[in-house]
Amino acid sequence: MSRVTAARLDRDLSDLPEGMRWREWMLRAEAAIFASAKPVSRETLARLVGDACRLDALLADINEELKGRPYEIVFVAGGWQFRTRPRHAETLRALAGAKDAGPPSFTKLEMLALSAIAYQQPVTRAELSRLAGHDISRDILGQLKSLGVIAPGPRAPMPGAPIAWVTTARFLEMFSLGSLRDLPELDTIEDAGALGREIDDTVEAALDDALGLAEEESAEDSALDETKLEAWR
Question: So which domain of life are we looking at (predicted)?
């Protein structure tokens, strides 16, 4: 909705009884979120309802009505978006061609690189390699970039001005995070120290848990990872 069209919308609905006004605001917010491919910001929703509308309470009421449904409205990447409930992810993955049914499968090193970028961004490839204790290749970063979860950030202030990598809004959407502040506390990262020290298995496992990627690796994945590790040693 353009700002001009929104300006013509009767936001206050002052001619309606209070209950009907609240119901109409609920329907507007739900329709806007349903129709959007991206998270809908508070600012956008505020243009659809009156100044007296308490948006958090409005969205809570919508979610209350969705309790029996396999989807809900969640706050991700700075806005609200419809999401299927996590317990249905396995069902959706079973559907051929299902998309956006949770995070894609990452290899061990891809996941490690992504986790390190999430917590240490902006960070260069060389810094990532030192942190991981393994070479984080351009192919790994290219794969993460192709999935839309990382992007080139500012040039690092060091010789050669290498690219420093950052996570994206897609990363927040994929892991159902409202912002980077919602990343789980990771005391073990601090225990491991600053960049330049090797990350040990304990920290790696904590990173897996933190991003909900602690699923058991398949034998095939493990074999693949070992092959990659051998190739980089």
Answer: Bacteria
